[in-house]
Design a protein that fits this description.
Layout: H1 7-14, H2 24-41, H3 46-60, H4 67-79, E1 105-115, E2 120-129, E3 139-146, E4 151-158, H5 161-174, E5 178-182, H6 185-199, H7 211-222, H8 242-253, H9 256-260, H10 271-287, H11 298-312, H12 317-338, H13 342-365, H14 371-381, H15 389-398, H16 400-405
Antiparallel strand pairs: 1-2, 1-5, 2-3, 3-4
Helix pairs in contact: 2-3, 2-4, 2-7, 10-12, 11-13, 12-13
């Protein structure tokens, strides 16, 4: 058999048995997997790339009359109803008996669950077809929102819905550091979609999971949920103002967590490092999507101590020696203010202690410094005062060849 001549022929070849499937859900799962390839290779605006592909596919295959061609056209038109030409697609004469069930589902439940730290929230919605035989079994749509990077990190469609829901309930019941609740479907839709909008623009997708393959079907199911009663504009949370930062620092230094680690009675010679470390803690929180200075967890501490601070700050030896202790104190203080379980606070504290050797290694090697941070570090090591413009200009001129050769 000759290889397909174009992407549309390739899709028709891959979908050659679609009319032989047992139910509408199987056909929709095949359709979303095929469109997942388009979503995965798009370098920007992935959702619109899929919509454009479906519109082009429907146009290019308009005269195809085989059962497979007319059926996969109906599947694509159901999954991407806003694609050009989708509203004109009709089942063919050889349409399988389940074709009138494509997309004919109703919401049967909506839920949310996540970790007490606030790192991730998963949203789960269950759907049933009008005809459970022709349509297929009740199934679940699950979307994982990662609040540390501000995206919908993974999506999944599977069943049977009752089994997935029971597994989630049991998992949360067995773990004191997770929570579970029923969720308003309009909020579920809003939260997943607004984070999916960010995901759709990523240059590179998360590698694990079923994000690409299930994305289109998840989008079709979310579109069936009620929209928020009022238009919801969700601007990025504002970082604390200077006054709020100062208030937080004063409150922390008067806290039992600071006292436990001796941060409230450091010698005067260490105070500059203390306040610098606290400013870094607050700066890092402001760089996260939710900008909450009190949301600390093992994951957030790892992002800070093992990545962000090395790329963004120049530490001297006193700063580096003090920073892990400051982070431990701040994380404990934040956990108490947020009312987290004792186990959660202990887990974060222990995780930070375990990170210290790697933090020290990264500080020593400087391997994660950005070019700008590395240049500033070298400038300081050479005894140049960054606030002295004459000395700074002289240093730049003396190091111009090295700076110009830096590919960054």
């Amino acid at each position: 058999m000759a290889p397909p001549q174009n992407p549309f022929d390739a899709v028709l070849h891959a979908a050659r048995d679609v009319a032989k499937l047992d139910c509408a859900l199987d056909a929709e799962m095949l359709g979303t997997a095929l469109l997942g390839s388009v979503y995965a290779i798009a370098d920007e605006d992935r959702r619109n790339a899929v919509r454009a592909f479906v519109g082009d596919f429907l146009s290019a295959t308009a005269r195809r009359r085989t059962a497979a061609a007319t059926t996969i056209r109906s599947v694509f038109a159901t999954l991407v109803p806003d694609a050009a030409g989708a509203d004109a697609v009709r089942p063919g004469a050889q349409a399988p008996s389940w074709s009138n069930q494509l997309g004919k589902v109703r919401l049967t439940g909506s839920y949310a669950y996540g970790d007490v730290y606030g790192d991730q929230t998963s949203y789960l919605a269950t759907f049933a077809y009008e005809d459970s035989v022709a349509g297929g079994p009740e199934h679940a749509v699950v979307a994982l929102v990662d609040h540390n990077i501000g995206i919908t990190k993974d999506v999944f469609v599977g069943g049977p819905a009752h089994r997935i829901l029971e597994q989630v309930r049991q998992m949360c019941a067995d773990d004191a550091l997770t929570w579970f609740r029923e969720e308003d479907p309009s909020r579920l839709r809003h939260e997943v979609v607004r984070h999916l909008d960010v995901t759709d623009e990523l240059g590179a997708l998360p590698q694990e999971g079923s994000l690409a393959t299930d994305r289109t079907l998840v989008g079709a199911r979310l579109a069936l949920l009620p929209a928020p009663a009022h238009a919801v504009d969700t601007p990025a949370p504002a970082p604390p103002s200077t006054a709020e930062r100062n208030r937080l620092v004063r409150a922390f230094l008067g806290s039992p967590e600071a006292a436990r680690l001796g941060l409230d009675r450091l010698p005067e010679s260490d105070l500059a490092s203390l306040y610098f470390c606290l400013s870094l803690v607050l700066d890092h929180s402001a760089s996260l999507p939710d900008a909450d200075p009190l949301r600390w967890s093992p994951a957030v501490a790892g992002l800070f101590l093992l990545d962000w601070v090395h790329r963004r700050a120049v530490l001297d030896m006193d700063d580096a020696a003090l920073l892990p202790r400051v982070v431990r104190g701040w994380a404990g203080y934040a956990a108490r203010l947020r009312g987290l379980p004792t186990e959660a606070a202990v887990q974060t504290d222990e995780a930070i202690e375990e990170m210290v050797p790697e933090f020290v290694r990264l500080y020593t090697t400087g391997e994660r410094r950005s070019p700008a941070t590395a240049a500033v570090a070298q400038l300081i090591a050479d005894g140049i005062d960054p606030d002295d413009p004459v000395a700074l200009d002289a240093w730049i001129e003396a190091n111009r060849q090295h700076l110009d050769d830096d590919p960054a």
